[in-house]
Amino acid sequence: MRASLAVAAPLAGAPRGAADPAASRLRSAARRVRAAAWVLAAATLLPAAAHAQNTHILMISGLGGDPEFTESFHGWLSRFADAATERYGVPAERIVYLGEDPDLDPTRIRARSTAENIRTAFADLAGAMAPADELVVLLAGHGSFRDGTARFNIPGPDVTPAEMGILLAPLGERRITFVNTASASGPFIEELSGPNRTVITATRSGRERNMPRFGLHFVDAFADDGADVDKDARVSMLEAFSYALREVQREYEGDRRLLTEHAMLDDNGDGEGSREPGDLEGDGVLASTVFLTSLGGADADDEVSAELRALYEEKADIEARIADLRRIKDRMPLERYEDELEALLVELALKNREIRAAGGGG
Q1: Residue 142 in contact with residue 63, Cβ under 8 Å?
Q2: What is the rounded average pLDDT of the residues 13-38?
Q3: pTM score of the predicted model
Q4: Which residues contact residue 248 at a Cβ distance below 8 angstroms, ignoring those fewer than 6 apart?
Q5: Is the pLDDT assigned to residue 234 strictly greater than 90?
Q6: What is the pLDDT of residue 361?
Q7: Same structural domain for residues 114 and 173?
Q8: Which of 289, 311, 330 is the last residue before a domain boundary?
Q9: H helices of 136-236, where?
Q10: pLDDT tens digits for 137-182?
């Protein structure tokens, strides 16, 4: 942090003449440094134990095709659910699991993963989630791509990206993380991309049809300890994506095989995924702020929880304004965009400080 701010100081004093392209580039670089510093400040003002909005989780395992895959998909989703409850405090009642074979785990799998049951699950979530709550949807299974349309293979009629978009629509502007770890999953990004949405796919197109290894490593990011890069005792969706990407690459290189899967992440609403998110100007900003979290259980103090919930709703509004600003960046002068972005990042950092003062770190 000190090194970044030290660089920013002399650059900020550069001449502001519009006729000097070099000066303009210097000013832009300075603003990006300061904005990045504020993003870091916003993240670090809250201690490791801080909670954000309540997370709801919908896990769907598709058709395995053979018992080995069916067991594998069930294993991935079970580990993810265990990590969510045991490591990050998400209550089991806020985790819905629809599976190919409910008999694999009758106490955990709520119903078979048919299109009808999936529709019911989304409708129930739309009615149960508070405005500030967040949803994580995790798909494990096989995908297909034919006649120009991607599909997630489930018992009965498959689910297409367009159909999934219809199911997500009633959730409005709530923050949603949608992760499709199946083959041929890339086209889900273009269809589901939107405000307050992080969309992650195991492939970049519908033509990558081999069984991806991304899903296993994405789950490992939450169940194990290797993905927490900033050592804040929690794992963001950006950290999980980056970790899985690295592990997939390492696995293919270890097997001396050509990489046949290229996972993508989109969270800026432009419908185009990135393989290297994290740039302030591109994908990765929203995903870096999304965690598996719980605001508090039944024993939490009602007044404190209400106060914190209000603060988190205000924080979500600021983050939504940041997302809105980024979407119109190309339609406004760069200097104005950077000024407004910096102001919003300062506001976000101060809101995080309010959350901490209200007991968010307790």
Answers
A1: yes
A2: 47
A3: 0.73
A4: 212, 213, 214, 217, 259, 261, 263
A5: no
A6: 41
A7: yes
A8: 289
A9: 161-168, 188-192, 214-223
A10: 999 999 999 999 999 999 999 999 999 999 999 999 899 999 999 9
- Residue 284 pLDDT exceeds 60: yes
Are 226 and 335 in a shared domain? no
Which residues sit opposite 149 in a β-bridge?
146
Higher-pLDDT residue of 327, 180: 180
Q: What are phi and psi of 317, to 5 degrees?
A: -65, -40
Alpha carbon distance 206, 203 (integer Å): 7
Do residues 150 and 248 share a domain? Answer: yes
DSSP lists the bridge partners of residue 32 as: none
CB 47 within 8 A of CB 356: yes
CA distance readout (Å), 286 to 30, 52, 312, 322, 336: 22, 14, 15, 9, 21
How would DSSP label each residue in 270-299?
A: SS--BSS---TTSTTTTGGG-----S--TT
Domain shared by 207 and 315, yes or no: no
**Residue 305 confidence class, pLDDT cut points 50, 70, 90:** low
Residue 62 banded pLDDT, cuts 50, 70, 90: very high
The answer to whether residue 3 sits within a structural domain is no
Residue 126 token pair: 């739309």
**pLDDT band per the 50, 70, 90 thresholds, residue 360:** low
Q: From residue 332, how far is each of 24, 134, 338 by CA, in Å?
A: 16, 30, 10
* Beta bridge partner(s), residue 198: 177
**Which DSSP symbol is given to 50?**
-
Residue of 37 and 201 predicted with greater confidence = 201
- Structural domain includes residue 39: no
Chain-centroid distance of CA 317 in Å reads 17
Q: Are residues 95 and 218 in the same domain?
A: yes
Number of domains into which the chain is organized:
2
Q: Which domain holds residue 142?
A: 55-289
Q: How far is CA 7 from CA 13, 104, 108, 192, in A?
A: 11, 57, 53, 39
Same domain (yes/no): 67, 112: yes
